[in-house]
Design goal:
Layout (H helix, E strand, L loop, with lengths): L12 H31 L3 H31 L6 H22 L5 E3 L9 H8 L22 E2 L18 H18 L7 H7 L13 H11 L27 E4 L5 H8 L4 E5 L4 H4 L1 E6 L9 E11 L4 E7 L11 E5 L15 E5 L2
Parallel strand pairs: 5-8
Antiparallel strand pairs: 1-5, 2-6, 3-9, 4-6, 4-9, 6-7, 7-8
Helix pairs in contact: 5-7
Length: 365
Amino acid sequence: MQNTVFYMPIPSNRVRSSNGFGLCCGIFFCLMMLSVGIYLISSYDFTSIQSLLKDQLNILQEKGEIEEAFNDFIETNGKEYISIKEREKRYKIFAENYKRAQEHNSKGKPYTLGVTKFMDLTHEEFSDYVGHLKPRSKRNVVELKNSDPDPNIDWQAKGKVTRVKDQGQCGSCWAFSSIGSTESLYAIKKGNLTEFSEQELVDCSWSFRNEGCNGGLMEHAFDYMIEKGISLESEYPYIGRDAKCAKKSNSFQIKTYNDVAEDNSDDLLIALNVEPISVSVEADEDAWQMYTGGIVTEDCGWNLDHGVLLVGSGFDSSRKIKYWRIKNSWGPSWGESGFIRLLRQTGRGPGVCGVAMDATYPLYF
């Protein structure tokens, strides 16, 4: 019987050599790729990616901050928008104003901007809100003599300025300015603060060339009060819209009024030493729309469109700036509890925001 022989195939040397070479090539290629990867990682500048990620994070944080501020704004001011589309529109305007205010505040100027009740209005819309002063037709300048006027006078601290009021959506700043100076005059002459009726001027002074909520002029209001007198606020309360004249009484009647020399801050200070002064300003800029505090030092224009009440002057020792202090009619939540301060210049010139261009005050003998 023939024995069975088993053979174990032995790979040839050529085959073994070929497989070893391929393995070496694979290892070498991997090592090469690893080296290239390590080199690229070690040499790549990641600061651009970090900067991009940081920018994206800042954008998200800013968006969240603005959304929160907008929601607070809606709640604080009782805003109600007629549709989602209108709300989105107002949010976009609010966000643009908010960013502009933040940019302003980053520059370290002596006044700040922030969220006011006008924050969801465009510049054009806000301009329409304040632009209700009529052009002057005459001036009644009487020169006052005072070689040493007090540069630090505060009629509010003296108890001669009534509370801050709110004109609302009516273009009646001229009525609030003229009533404000009349109330202060009454307090100086009679000894007590008494509020008079802006609404009477809005409704009843049309024949004196005022136009109610469409605008007017402080001098025309004085002309009315010289001839007709004025009712108490309690008798004829403010409603913020044009209505039929319903005059109640003649509680106070001014005698005349004087104008301050145009573009003369020195004369304006002399007049302020006599009593609070009705002044005209340009108020359709950011410095008014978003004002939250400090002293406005930059000129915000000379196109007079808003009537206010100059109630004081002083010196801010921390900022080393002289200022005028002005009572506005946009409610106590605006500005510095309803007031704004403007840089007080000296000598000739229109003054910041045109404050020295058109100033007038009532008189009672």
